[in-house]
Amino acid sequence: MTGATSGLGRSVAEALLDQGHEVTVTGRNTSSLEQLLLKGARTATWDMLTQKEETTWPIEVKDEFDVVILNAGLGFFKEHTALSPEEIHEMLTVNVELPILFSRYHSQSFQQRGRGQLLFIGSLAGRMASPKASVYAATKHALTGYVQGLRMELMGSGVDVTIVQPGPIDTPFIDKADASGNYKKSLGKHLLSIETVRDVVLEQLVRPQGEVLVPRHLGIGAKLTQLVPLQFERFGRSIYAKK
User: Fold this and answer.
1) Phi, psi of 70 (to 5 degrees)
2) Is the model's pLDDT at 174 over the cut of 80?
3) Does pLDDT of 84 surpass 90?
4) 99: cis peptide before it, omega within 30°?
5) Would you say residue 51 has pLDDT above 60?
6) pTM of the predicted model, to two decimals?
7) SS3 227
8) Which contiguous run of DSSP H or E holds residue 14?
């Protein structure tokens, strides 16, 4: 699992360890990795922004696995003109480029064995964009498109391809993405708990469903954005412009 040192990733990793699975986790927070090591995980420090070439990946992530969970993500919630070129590049690297390269690497061994699962943690932003998240949403739309195409490519191979697309979760990701704290404050009770999303992820490891929105009723809004995009955007702008 990539991005396992905090938030959803850490919660899923700890749950899998409690269930007795052999788990390899990556992240940049060495202190958190040490804690997971003490819990029985195999750990690897991986800075995806500086180690994006396959030759620079940690050796631990190149082993054969039964499941690869691509959880690492990065977001900056700002107007598109307020984003620096570096911030745009970093989101594209972590949210799009690395998941494609890493899943490509492991799908080859999965196909050779005729089994395996690639489980991507996407976002509601991959189905519905919102103000101050235009570029972030673009990266998540790209990931959604990749996963949908990949799933069709691998049909019949024995390899499952799944994406879980949660709404905003009460994790450190929100705090980093919006340093002002306004987005988190405005969402209030509408923030999803880590446990809610973790349980959906764990369920997908047992019964893969291809594509899952959390909570599921958000699928209505996702469909409306396709059917009547301008009307939905006019209606929803005040709701989604809380960042």
Assistant:
1) -100, 95
2) no
3) yes
4) no
5) yes
6) 0.88
7) helix
8) helix 7-18
**Whether the Cβ atoms of residue 8 and residue 201 lie closer than 8 Å to each other:** yes
Q: How far apart are CA 48 and CA 138, in angstroms?
A: 19
In DSSP notation, 51-100 reads --SGGGS-GGGGS--SEEEE-------S-GGGS-HHHHHHHHIIIIIHHH
Contacts (Cβ under 8 Å, ≥6 apart) of 112: none
The string of DSSP letters for 115-150 reads -EEEEEE--GGGTS--TT-HHHHHHHHHHHHHHHHH
CA atoms of 94 and 169, how far apart (whole Å): 19
d(C-alpha 100, C-alpha 120), whole Å: 10
Handedness of CA 135, 89, 194, 69 (dihedral sign): positive
Lateral strand order in the sheet of 211-214:
67-70, 116-121, 159-166, 211-214
Q: What is the pLDDT of residues 33-45, one digit of tens each?
A: 999 999 999 999 9
* Element (DSSP H or E) covering residue 214: strand 211-214
Count of all residues that appear for the chain in the document: 243
| Nearest-angstrom CA–CA distance, 102 and 39 | 25
Token readout for 195 is 């446990």
Do the beta carbons of residue 73 and residue 123 sit within 8 Å?
yes
Amino acid at 129: A
Between the alpha carbon of residue 166 and those of residues 1, 57, 65, the distances in Å are 17, 28, 25
Residue type, 32: S
In this structure, the number of other CB atoms found within 10 A of the CB of residue 174 comes to 19
